[in-house]
Write a structure and sequence with these properties.
By secondary structure, the protein is an alpha+beta fold. The protein has a single domain, classed as Alpha-D-phosphohexomutase, C-terminal domain (TATA-Binding Protein). Strand 3 and strand 4 form a beta hairpin. The protein starts with a helix and ends with a helix.
Length: 106
């Protein structure tokens, strides 16, 4: 709170105008039921498909796409694969999740 108050004092801006400068992003979360032995196959498929993207494969497949990202990983507690995406609009995030689910199912 002290940092925020200092920023307001230094900039002369209200909290509303400072908040307006922060871009809005939307996260969509979904999951697909799978057999436990399918997870490695799905993750390999995603790594190959998105090989040209900036990937992190420590916990599933995470791709940084610049203005958006997605993360696909197997659950540690259920027989599901979790699909998450964040983008500037909810429709873009949903489209990314839908595309990933279609790719996984193919």
């Amino acid at each position: 709170m002290a940092i925020l108050l200092e920023l307001m004092a230094l900039s002369g801006q209200s909290i509303q105008s400072l908040r307006a400068e922060i871009p809005e992003y939307h996260v969509i979360k979904d999951k697909l039921s799978i057999r436990g032995d399918q997870a490695p196959v799905i993750l390999r498929k995603l790594r190959r498909h998105f090989a040209d993207e900036k990937l992190n494969v420590i916990d599933g497949v995470f791709a940084d796409l610049g203005d958006s990202w997605f993360h696909v990983r197997p659950s540690n507690t259920e027989s599901v694969i979790r699909v998450l995406a964040e983008a500037p609009t909810a429709s873009e995030a949903q489209a990314r999740v839908d595309m990933l689910k279609a790719l996984i199912a193919s």
